[in-house]
Amino acid sequence: MNTLTNTLGQTLGRAGGVNLLPLIVAAAAFGLIGAPSSWLTLTVAGLAMGMMLFLMASGLSLVFGLMDVLNFGHSAFVSFGAFISATVLAGLGGWLAADSWMLNALALAAAYLAAISFGLVAGWFFETVIIRPVYRDHLRQILITIGAMIVAEQTILAFWGGTPLSVARPQFLEGSWIIGDVSIEIYRAFAFALGAVVFVMLYFMLNRTRIGLLIRAGVENREMVESLGFRVDRLFIGVFMLGSALAALGGAMWAGYETLITPALGGELMIVVFIVVIIGGLGSIEGTLLGAILVGLMTNYIGFLAPKLALASNMILMVAILLWRPNGLRPAIK
Amino acid sequence: MTLLTIRNMKTDIDQYVVLHDISFDVPEGGVFVLLGRNGAGKTTTLRSIMGLWKPSPGSVLFKGEDITGLHTADIARKGIAYVPENMGIFGTLTVDENLILATASGRFDPARLARIHALFPALEQFRDKQAWSLSGGQKQMLSVARAIIEPRALILIDEPTKGLAPSIVDAMAEAFREIAQTTTILLVEQNFTFARSLGRDMAVIDDGRVAHSGSMEDFAADTALQDRLLSLSA
C-alpha cells in the first residue's frame, strides 16, 4: 500500500502535482461515459458546481485555518444568501423578464449585493457574539454553532415559510448554448466564470497584498504573527466577514442553479462543504478550489454513471484522499 | 540603566504553577543570559514577558512602563522581539516575505536589509525560497533576522543553538555579538559554553524561581555553583 501511494505521489509530482487530479478524473470519466456530448455537459455542470462549492467553502477553510474555529453555523450564511437573493430577484421580476440584458444584470447584481451585504453584517455579528466567547474550545464551538445553524434555519422558516421557494433567473442566463450535439446551460457557464473571477481576486489578495501575507502567516502560526505586533483577532473578524459574504454569494448562486430552495438548503450543503475543506487542506484557498472542483466533477460523473453511488461518492473520495494525504491535497502548513 | 524589570512573576498553565516567583533586572545593552535545567521555567519566563502566558500576580516593566497583561501584539510594538525555541518561521512564505512581514511599514529599510544579509549571507542567497525548504541553521538565521529587521530595544531569544552544527553555532555567536552592540538580548540557553561567551549578566532559574543572579564572569568562575544549579558535571 505504501509503495503504491509513494509511486502515485512521485508520478503525480513529476507531472504537475495534485493540480492534475481533476484532469485525471475527467479523463477517466471520458473513457467510462463514452459519449463526448454527455461528458462535456457533465463536465461543465461539475465545474459550475465546484465553483459554487468553492465560494461556500473558502471562508470556512480560512476561518478554520486562521483561528482553529469549527463553524457548523457557516451553512446559515449559505441559506440566508439564497433566500435573500431569491426575494430580491422576485421583487425585481420586471427587470428580470425585460428584454434588456442591462436590466437583467442589474437585478442579478442587486440580488448578489444584498446577499453579500447580509453576509458581511451577519458575519460580524456571528463572530462577535457567538464565536468569540468559545475560542480554543472545540466542543463548545461545535455545540454553539450547530445551535446557531438550527436557529437560522428556523428563522428562515418563520420568514419565508416551509414551502419550497421558486427562484427566478434573469432572462439573459436562461437557456443553453448548443454547440453541435453538446448543450451547455448558460447559467452553469456563468456560475463557473463568476467563481473563477472570485478565486482570482482572492488569490491576488492573499498572495499580493500585506493583508493576504498576514492571513497566510496567521494560518501557519497565529502566535508568531502576534509576536510581530499584529492583532490576529482583529484580522480574524475581517476574514470571518469575508468568508460569510462569500458563503452568502455561493448560496445566492446556488439558488439560481437549483431554482427551487428550502430552508434546509444550507444544512444539506454543509456536509459537502466540509468534505471540500478537508480534501483541499485547511486554510488553503488553492486546496479548497481543487477540492471543490474534484467534488463537483465526481458528483456529476458518478450521478450519471452509477446514480445509486452518487451520495456515497464524495465520502469515498474523501476517504481515498485522506488515506493518501492525511492533511489534504494542498494544506496551508508545510 | 535597567531596561526590563521582572518582579514576583507567577505564571500558571492550566492547573500547573510553572513560575512561582521570578524577579530579575535586565540592564540596557549587551546580552543577559537565563540559565537553568530542562523544565526550570526559562521558556515560560520569556513567554510571560511577551504576554503569551498571562502572569498573575507579578509585574513586567519595560523602560519603566508596566506592560503586564498587555496583548502580545502591543508588547511587540513597544520594541520587544521574540525568537521562540521552535523558531516560528512561516514555512509557506518565502524568506523575503517572512522578513517583510516583520516590518512596520511593509517595506524594507535598505540599510537594515544589507546588515542582515551581511550577518546571514544565506538569507540573501535564498530570499525567494519558501522557508520550509531551508536547513535548520538557515531557519534559525531567518528567525533572528526577522527580530532585527526593525529597530528593537530588546530581543528575547529562546535556545537558538539547539540542534545546530558547531559551525553554525559559531556564526550565530558572532551575529549575536554584533546585534548586542545596538540591541539588548535576553537569551535563554542550555549550552553553557555558548552562553558564557556572550553573556555579561545572568540569572539561573530553578523550579520556577530565580536561584541565582549576578555577573557571568563570577558565575563562570564558580564551578561548585554551576554544578549545584545546572548539574554541568553530571
Question: What does this protein look like?
Answer:
The complex is a heterodimer of chains A (334) and B (234). Chain A has helices spanning 2-15, 21-33, 36-67, 74-91, 93-97, 101-131, 138-160, 186-208, 210-220, 222-227, 232-258, 265-280, 285-305, 310-324; strands spanning 165-166, 176-179, 182-185, 260-261. Chain A is mainly alpha-helical and 334 residues long. Chain A has a single domain (18-324), classed as ABC transporter involved in vitamin B12 uptake, BtuC (Orthogonal Bundle), CATH 1.10.3470. In chain A, the strands form 2 sheets. A two-stranded antiparallel ribbon of chain A has the order 1-4. Chain A has a two-stranded antiparallel sheet with strand order 2-3. Chain B is built from 10 helices and 10 strands. In chain B, the strands form 2 sheets. Chain B has a 6-stranded mixed β-sheet with strand order 6-7-8-3-9-10, sandwiched between helices. In chain B, 36% of the residues lie in helices and 26% in strands. Classes of the chains: A mainly alpha (334), B alpha/beta (234).
Mean pLDDT of chain A: 90
CATH topology of chain A: ABC transporter involved in vitamin B12 uptake, BtuC
Give the CA-CA distance, first to last residue of chain A.
Answer: 24 Å
Q: Which range does the strand content of chain A fall in?
A: under 5%
The description of the largest β-sheet of chain A is: 2 strands, antiparallel
Count of DSSP helices of chain A?
14
InterPro entries (chain B): AAA+_ATPase, ABC_transporter-like_ATP-bd, ABC_transporter-like_CS, BCAA_Transport_ATP-bd_LivF, P-loop_NTPase
Keywords (chain B): Amino-acid transport, ATP-binding, Nucleotide-binding, Transport
Domain ABC transporter (chain B): 4-232
Protein name (chain B): ABC transporter ATP-binding protein
What can be said about this structure in brief?
Chain A is mainly α.
Throw out a few tags for this protein.
heterodimer; A: 334 residues; mainly alpha; ABC transporter involved in vitamin B12 uptake, BtuC; two-stranded antiparallel sheet; 14 helices; 76% helix; globular; B: 234 residues; alpha/beta; Rossmann fold; 6-stranded mixed beta sheet; 36% helix
